[in-house]
Amino acid sequence: MNIYHSGISGMMRPALIILLSLISTIALSRDYSMGKLHVNIELLKDGSMWVTEHRSFTFEGRYSQIYRTFPVQDRAVFSDFTVFEGDTYYRDDGSEAPGSFRLVKKPNELELQVNFDARDTTRVFGIRFRVHGAVNRHEDASLLYYQIISDEWTKPIHQISAIITPPIEMKDEEVLHWVHGSPDAISTREAGGVISLEHQRLPAGRYLEIRALYPRDAFPGLEMTETPIREAVLEETAALADEANRMRQLAIERQQKRADREAVGRRLVIPVSLIYLLIWISLFRRYGKRVKPSKKTEGFSRLPDKEKPAIVHYLTKGSHVTGDAMIATLFHLAYRRFLEIREEETSRLTLLGKKKKKEIAFVLNRPHWEKEKDMLPAYEHFMIDELFLKIAGKEGRLSLRDMKKKPNMMRKFFTSWKKKVSKEGKTKGWFDKESETGRNIGLAIGISSMLAFIALAIYMGPFMLIVAGLAFVSIIAAFFIFHRTASGEIAYQQWQSLKKHLKKIDFSAEIENLNQETVNEFLIYGMALGLGPKYFKRIAEGLETSGHTAWIYWIILHNNSMSSFSKTINEVITTTSSTMSSAAGAGGGGTMGGGGGVASGGGGAR
Prior knowledge:
- The chain is an alpha+beta fold and 606 residues long.
- Helix content is 43%, strand content 26%.
- Among the domains are: 31-228, tricorn interacting facor f3 domain (Immunoglobulin-like, Sandwich), CATH 2.60.40; 309-432 and 484-583.
- It has helices at 8-28, 230-287, 309-316, 323-335, 366-372, 378-391, 400-405, 407-426, 433-460, 464-478, 486-504, 507-510, 516-528, 533-546, 562-583, and strands spanning 31-43, 49-71, 77-85, 88-89, 101-105, 109-132, 135-138, 142-149, 157-165, 176-180, 186-189, 195-202, 208-214, 224-225, 339-350, 353-364, 397-399, 555-556, 603-605.
- It starts with 7 loop residues before the first helix and ends with a strand.
């Protein structure tokens, strides 16, 4: 006899675990975004440049570090780092303490780590560093080619601005510049040869770079290469500009064509919706008209007739067959002595000794089956053949564990078994054949129309989604076309009446007014009608209270103790239900191009 103790601590433990898990999840959930970025680039006469970045980070949750990476094997060299927030400068002491920064050398990059303590706030960090190698001096011009933002950033960056100041004041015509990486970037040349750049949002994984031509002597301290550069740059950037202009023009034309199509879609949506609605109403009037029963259904507190559980399930579920029908059939076969349901105790050796475990098994009663098998309907005959002769084998024993081990075989069996139940159910004449045709037509029209109008919405604008939504509603409504015949409606109402009665009956109080046959039928047909574990527990408690547990003789329990009977019988039903349903699958101004600038690295927050 197994006794389960449950006290306050036992009841609170799962709730406490869930609460702690939830608190932990909330505490650990965090994210960050990158807001404004302003970059100031000061070009020096020796060809190097000072770069000052002001980066805005918004933190959701707790963060303690931002990092900025710089390539070490590129043609540029990064040095002389300074980190600050407003007027406060961070210490370069190599520690990880808040208010400090350090440089960590890695195989292919140098990582600048800035340490702080922040939670649910916005911080603006300033990083200043020197770059050598982004400017090259040639015999006819000097070229700056630098990625202000590289493609290594994993978050979008917003409200970007940049200022590039030359080493000396220059005339406007002496400076030529181009921005690559995004056609939405806007750049201007200001007085003194200063270049300014603005961009609203750069997606993650995209770069933004500046390419500028200056006079050869603007960088007198930089070694000169004896090859021209100006003509090649002009040719390449001209091709990129032409391509950008062509793409912009195509975008304008596409936008205008889309606007024209959307205007047509806006005009068509009402008449098309009305036509679709009229077609569907016509379909419903032709196939969906119901015949009212000639007599009113009476209340039932006993079985309305002697139909098998699977066929009752077929009727009450609208011709669908689920795992409940299969479970009810197995129990009905056991009640009629074709099977036995056994609770067996097995043991296995472990490091801690023998471990006992209960197992539920369905066992074929071969003598009775051989004698009475010709009396079984086709779907019950098929069930025994497949489950107990083929899948179970010679022993004719099929446990829940066996079912779990053979899900593909169970699924294949159940698919075929459902068809046989449906075939038997159709012979009853409970469902109108014309309405089934109408339902199928309605589903075909609805699904095809919804897909077509979704495609039209992509082409003609969002107004076509209104008609697509109407088609979706018609798919649901198509199921209401399918209906029962007059005789089917009477049978359905009778079984529904019994279902309502079973939901309300108090077995502990009424058990003395019932007999063994009725209780067994209520148990089995309750499964077919879709009643759940609480219902079966009420039956078990009623039997336990009255001492009539022997009425369920076809379930052989390992522990026949009265104190555990209720729990055990409910375990048989619920475990079988979940296992069979699961096994049977019944459940449940810039340009694109470029990319040749000196890479400036990426970064993020931790």
